[in-house]
Design goal:
The chain is built from 14 helices and 19 strands. The N and C termini lie far apart (54 Å). It is of the alpha/beta class and 482 residues long. Bound molecules: adenosine-5'-triphosphate and magnesium ion. Adenosine-5'-triphosphate is lined by residues 5-8, 11, 28-34, 69, 153, 194-196, 199.
């Protein structure tokens, strides 16, 4: 029998769902990934030329979990596995594509794909934007069954949106239609769904031994109300978000900080530090810029526009923007050059960012600032216009490997730009400062102007060639190609 799997009643309910989008979520070990793999195989065998895409966040996770499960369920069935592009190919022209979204740019791999069955394993590892984008690839010229099916444990970067999207306000195991007309169903998973009693007993024992109560409730009982691993549990939109700045910017010290990315987003925040009062210092995050695939010069021009009329104490940038390891001029120097050209005299400081201790300190500082002052309001508030920061802060989760630290693979750019700024204000001790040039001073290092020309003090032909060579992009995120 192919697939080689006798589904449990819960798996059957999931697999026979008639909803456009079905979500099998909850406790660990109930057979969620196995059910997705069974769906991948049946959709391909029952329909000629069917394209099934099965997503996990990283290729490594696909190879560890989905790939062996597909092999197991396909057993002796004749298929070809093309390891180069991670595709299972069947003789009727159907394919199962193993797919991943390790970073934001990976989604462009799938921009011309035609997907018929779209499957996500561990959906809470994905952002809603990624889910929505990939759904736009589900299309066909021929009438056929097309659907989106996902599985997940609670508690990761996507916990909040997945819960709101499939679970909140609707009874489980029945189809409902949302305001956009899409039909959805949530199938709750528990470890007792697993058909094998020995597996059930040993796995339940393992989960019961977990000391983290929230994690235990999530993995053992599939509890979606507790968000295991959430870092900023104190975040409350009602008190941390403001619509109107309660004071004048002219009365504050202003700061700006940036997290650099080219394919990943660049995120920039402005923070106003209010004059000290009896309860301490209050901070207001009052502006955000966010976006990707924008060159350093273009960001620098944008920032310069603001800085001209509203000077800040400094612009904080992380350590990687100060290095030229990848073989190009440091990002920070590209900003400096534009600022100097436009007469913007804001110093650029290196946010203490590279080490484990810096990460922990940034987290601790933000916890401190989100707490309530003696006036009853928190030390830090965020303008409602900073939509990326407001989305990001409550979603951040701890790392599985280093439980005291934030997880690596999450959408944390706006957290970074905010905490680089705050930590720079707090530490007031910078390992590097790129100060503005004095008027009339010649540039010290050769640099590239906004038209892409090499400019430098006394640059001869050979020097120019050497510099040009070191500026070839070598595939790092923060390097751009004209
Ligand atoms: N119906 C079934 N019959 C036999 N074995 C099954 C069945 N469903 C799942 N299994 C096996 O049980 C194990 C656990 O299943 P699976 O990995 O699908 O669980 P899961 O719910 O995805 O777990 P996790 O929450 O850890 O991702 C796997 O080895 C899988 O092959
Ligand atoms: Mg699984």
């Amino acid at each position: 029998m192919i697939p080689n799997l006798k589904p449990s009643p819960k798996q059957s309910l999931f697999l026979s769902s008639q909803a456009d989008e079905t979500f099998y979520g909850g406790a660990a070990g109930g057979g969620k990934s196995a059910a997705l793999c069974a769906e991948a195989i049946t959709s391909c065998l029952e329909d000629e030329g069917h394209h099934t895409y099965i997503f996990r966040r990283t290729i490594k996770e696909l190879k560890q979990s989905v790939l062996p499960e597909l092999y197991k369920q396909l057993g002796p069935y004749p298929f070809k596995y093309n390891s180069q592009d991670s595709t299972f190919v069947f003789s009727n022209g159907s394919i199962i594509q193993l797919a991943y979204l390790d970073n934001e740019a990976d989604k462009y791999r799938y921009q011309s794909a035609e997907v018929h069955t779209l499957l996500f394993d561990e959906l809470t590892h994905f952002t809603q934007d990624q889910y929505e984008y990939l759904k736009t690839r589900v299309r066909s010229e021929k009438p056929r069954l097309m659907r989106v099916m996902s599985a997940s444990n609670p508690g990761n970067v996507g916990h909040g949106w997945v819960k709101a999207y499939f679970i909140d306000g609707h009874p489980p195991e029945s189809i409902f239609r949302d305001v956009t007309g899409v039909t959805k169903m949530f199938v709750p998973a528990t470890v007792s769904d697993h058909p094998n009693p020995t597996f059930r007993a040993t796995y339940t024992k393992q989960l019961e031994a977990l000391s983290d109560e929230a994690l235990k409730r999530a993995l053992l009982h599939g509890d979606w109300d507790i968000f295991s691993g959430q870092v900023f549990t104190e975040w409350r939109r009602e008190k941390h978000v403001f619509s109107q700045l309660p004071l004048h910017l002219e009365d504050c010290k202003l700061y700006c900080g940036l997290d650099w990315g080219y394919n990943d987003p660049t995120s920039i925040h402005w923070v106003a530090q209010a004059p000290e009062n009896e309860a301490g210092r209050f901070y207001y995050v009052y502006r955000e810029l966010y976006g990707n695939q924008t060159r350093p010069e273009d960001w620098a021009y944008k920032l310069a526009e603001y800085f001209k009329s509203e000077p800040v104490q400094f612009l904080a940038m992380p350590h990687d923007t100060f290095s030229n390891l990848g073989g190009t001029m440091p990002i920070v120097q590209q900003f400096r050059n534009i600022f100097d050209k436009l007469g913007v005299r804001v110093p650029i400081v290196q946010a203490p960012s590279g080490t484990h201790q810096h990460k922990i300190n940034r987290q601790a500082l933000l916890h401190q600032l989100l707490s309530d002052s003696t006036l009853g309001k928190p030390y830090l508030q965020v303008s409602e216009s900073c939509v990326n920061l407001i989305r990001t802060l409550p979603m951040l989760v701890y790392s599985d490997l280093r439980p005291e630290e934030l997880a690596d693979k999450q959408d944390d750019h706006s957290y970074d730009s905010l905490t680089y700024t705050l930590y720079s204000i707090a530490s007031n001790n910078f390992s590097a400062i790129v100060a503005p040039k004095q008027p009339g001073e010649k540039p010290k290092a050769p640099y590239v102007d906004e038209d892409g020309n090499l400019v430098g003090a006394g640059l001869d032909e050979m020097m120019a060639m050497a510099v040009k060579k070191t500026m070839q992009p070598r595939g790092r995120d923060w390097i751009y190609r004209r």
